[in-house]
Specification:
The structure is a homodimer of 505-residue chains.
Chain A lengths: L2 H23 L8 H11 L3 E3 L6 E3 L1 H20 L3 E2 L5 E3 H4 L3 H7 L4 E6 L2 E9 L4 H11 L8 E10 L13 E11 L2 H22 L5 E4 L11 E8 L5 E11 L1 H6 L2 E3 L5 E3 L1 E8 L1 H10 L16 E5 L6 H16 L5 E3 L7 H10 L4 E5 L1 H6 L1 E6 L5 E5 H6 L1 H22 L1 E3 L3 H9 L3 E4 L5 H11 L2 E6 L28 E4 L3
Parallel strand pairs in A: 3-7, 15-16, 15-17, 20-21
Antiparallel strand pairs in A: 1-2, 4-6, 5-6, 7-8, 8-14, 9-10, 9-22, 10-11, 11-14, 12-13, 17-18, 18-19, 21-23, 22-23
Keywords (chains A, B): Aminoacyl-tRNA synthetase, ATP-binding, Cytoplasm, Ligase, Nucleotide-binding, Protein biosynthesis
Family (chains A, B): Belongs to the class-II aminoacyl-tRNA synthetase family. ProS type 3 subfamily.
GO molecular function (chains A, B): ATP binding; proline-tRNA ligase activity
Chain lengths: 505, 505
């Protein structure tokens, strides 16, 4: 048997072991049906459940704890950069939505309409906000007088509502959760700097906290936010090769400020419309965490955002279980003193094997098993979620090394996801190669002529769209290349570089 | 001039000074029109603004920061007592609301109805949640199997919607903000203990954090939450003598679990309906802070919840303003190192007098003025919001003593509010006295027979209702008194004690 054959065999054995475990555990393997895998993991890991409201989910405690961690990190950074939170109404007068022409065209098919309050039929209905540019523009018009009042650096956390026919928890729900940032500036340069600052913050958050390698770039005109002058996004690759737009930042020019009369007196006593921006990350990002890091055993939570970073499992018999639980709590207290989030699994009606599987499915980064003989020997058994191997370590060593261990898992996740994205992105120059690569579930780097009609045809052919045009200083795929020709039309390439095509969520 | 006359004169002079300041600042004095005072303070202190949506407000940055502090304190305590957050949909199928008979009767006139999504008219409409017992009951039915699953200790933060004809920021808005706690238990005793635990938590929060003396008690049947077996409340007295219900905790018995089939197998293998509770504090509590502590100069924020605890005002001329700002930042950094929230007012387009008034209006507990001569002398000028007096202190002394100073202001606020409540509560035994006291804007302690018809007549006569029946271990008005007769009907008294009557917000 050659060395390569040996590796293949090993891989096959590993795979068999995985399949068996997955079957036993009851999650469909990713390779069998990625969609089923996703839905089962969401439900069995207790992230979310279906609801009796069309298109809406219920976020369960484990999913809510994850979302709260996301909110806390971002909120702290928004405040640190001078942004202020506000709370605007959930309802928006229908007439507001129709004021910005592109905006109404973009959102009309997705709106929830409120036409009755108590027993009173409303002559002018309200909609549940699909986003809040309009009502915020309206309020700003009343608050803004002079250049001295600017910038407005505002954001709010809350729900938004956009009808969805095919629901999928976190990815496509008719009610979802987000922050929406809204800022107003005296000039274009400052507004564009804000747009970029927030895009970069999202990139930092995804990379360093969620271990998601994402590509920063600009959207083409046909993929822009309804009403924007320029839309920037971060795009991540899921383990089925599809792209997930994970955050957006928009330069709105003076479109909304003209529609809502958001003007001010300049230092030179002229009257001028404000330049506005908006930006958002939503609960979709939880879908990105699941689909970037998960495997056939379930979730893998990046340690820097995990609701539970370490789970301690007291392994006892009936006669010493309480004692082992107490020991587990002592161990947990030492870990918590380092600022770690630790859970002790005290359930007594289920087997140890069930517990192990349950926490693997929930993706807790590190598991510690603590049995009576371990206790006597002064050791614990430690297992990282991303490894098959169990380690027996001196108790103190396990405690003192926990932070570094978690950092190691965090780095491993980012590296694996980065390799996966790079390995599954191909550079092509012919439409035949293009179609084959998209069909194979890859991202494609190709030249495009910039014609929206061509983008539409490519989408009709292949279901792929231009995810974005990577920025010149994006971490990935940033290279400028002059003189290319469009992979679809053969016309001269736009943008001065290849763009990223892919199918998307 | 006698001593009493001297005091009176002093009071008159003080009053004149206050009136002048209030006029200059532009807030109507409380004694002239409490309602105008409230609305002006809310707007001028930048807590909230009116919105273009009927009955809804916009919460501005200062109000939002206050609400975030409230959320953070309560959320930490909910989690510390084992409660888990979830996120339920904002929409509820109309059919759910009608399942619990009392519930629909209570909420029907206030519902917002969604009858169209996109272009599709819905055969079964949704309502915007007025509260979430129904949809949570529905979900619980799917999650609950065995007594081992209990208790469910759930809560969520979010908006709720109840139509309001006459809007008043924080107090009566058609959309408001709250947490709603929902728990399910295997038996009545455990459920009732939860109801009491949360009521006591609310009491602790109001007393120790918001400096609001509140009376814990049970509501009479006619004032119960729609669908509850027992409703408990905390009631506070505003500076116009009216009561504000500041938090509620309900024992729902098996009413909602029967309506939504929330049942489980007991340890003895019987099938049983869960005993459920719900509890809430809403954004109304901000109204209580404003109306309990505010004076003719504006808000007074209790230091333990204040978004800004100390404001530093650099007092410079054109040529040294930047230097004084830098000194102010240095001072602020020392205070922040103690965990205090400090703002340096760097605005250069406004006078010092304007700044002083502005921060007094916003109720910042302590102001520090820092001028060039102070700097040379190593002193600062310190003024507490609740005093007319300015103190010149050594810089180090001002810094090292700041926490104690804030604690002193906190204690002073609670003491003042407590005295005010006790001074404005009268104990009466005749209906004539009762009517006179209510008319004079007091709370009344009186016996009542327990007949809902009599409660209704009293309300029609005087606009006063029974705020609550103080608990036997309530901090205030807890005394049991046997043998009383009803102040209204002359029948034997119910409850074994006097109850609290008052007009209410």
């Amino acid at each position: 048997m050659t060395k390569a054959g040996g590796k293949q065999e090993q891989h096959r054995q590993d795979q068999g072991k995985q399949d068996k475990k997955a079957q036993q555990y009851g999650v469909t393997p990713q390779s069998v049906d990625f969609n089923d895998w996703y839905n089962e993991v969401v439900k069995k890991a207790d992230l979310a459940d279906n609801s009796p409201v069309a298109g809406a989910m219920v976020v369960k405690p484990y999913g809510s704890a994850l979302w709260e961690n996301i909110v806390r990190w971002l909120d702290t950074r928004f405040k640190a950069t001078g942004h202020e939170s506000l709370i605007f109404p959930t309802l928006i007068p229908m007439g507001f939505i129709t004021k910005e022409a592109d905006h109404v065209e973009g959102f009309a098919p997705e709106l929830f309409t409120v036409s009755k309050i108590g027993t009173e039929e409303l002559s002018e209905p309200y909609v549940l906000r699909p986003t809040s540019e309009t009502i915020i523009g309206h309020m700003w018009a009343g608050w803004l007088n002079s250049y001295r009042d600017l910038p407005f650096l505002h954001y709010q956390w809350g729900s938004v509502f956009r009808a969805e026919l095919r629901t999928k928890a976190f990815l496509r729900t008719s009610e979802f959760y987000w922050h929406e940032g809204h800022t107003a500036h005296a000039d274009e340069a400052e507004a564009r700097a804000e747009v970029r600052q927030q895009l970069d913050l999202y990139h930092e958050f995804c990379r360093n906290v969620l271990a998601l390698p994402v590509v920063r770039g600009e959207k083409t005109a046909s993929e822009r936010f309804a009403g924007a002058v320029a839309t920037y996004s971060i795009e991540g690759m899921m383990r089925d090769g599809k792209a997930l737009q994970s955050g957006t930042s928009h330069y709105l020019g003076q479109n909304f400020s003209r529609a809502f009369d958001v003007k001010f007196q300049t230092r030179e006593q002229r009257e001028e419309y404000a330049h506005t921006t908006s930006w958002a990350i939503s609960s979709r990002i939880i879908g990105a965490i699941i689909m970037t890091h998960g495997d056939d055993f379930g979730l893998i939570m990046p340690p820097n955002i995990a609701p539970i970073q370490v789970v301690v499992i007291p392994v006892g018999r009936k006669d010493n279980f309480d004692e082992m639980v107490a020991e587990g709590e002592r161990l947990a207290a030492e870990l918590r003193a380092q600022g770690l989030s630790v859970r002790v699994d005290k359930r007594d009606g289920v087997t140890n094997g069930f517990k192990y599987n349950d926490w693997e499915l929930k993706g807790v980064p590190v598991r510690i098993e603590l049995g009576p003989r371990d206790l006597e020997a002064g050791v614990v058994v430690v297992k990282n979620r991303n490894s098959e191997e169990k380690e027996t370590l001196a108790r103190e060593e396990a405690v003192s090394g926990m932070r570094a261990r978690l950092d190691g898992i965090q780095a491993w996740l980012l590296e694996r996801a980065t390799s996966f994205m790079l390995d599954n992105t191909v550079t092509v120059d012919t439409y035949q190669e293009f179609q084959a690569a998209i069909e194979a579930g890859k991202w494609v780097r190709a030249f495009h002529c910039g014609d929206p009609e061509s983008e539409k045809q490519i989408k009709d052919d292949t279901k792929a769209t231009i995810r974005n045009i990577p920025l010149d200083d994006a971490e990935f795929f940033a290279e400028r290349e002059e003189g290319g020709v469009c992979v679809h039309t053969g016309k001269p390439a736009a943008y001065g570089k290849r763009v990223i095509f892919g199918r998307q969520y």
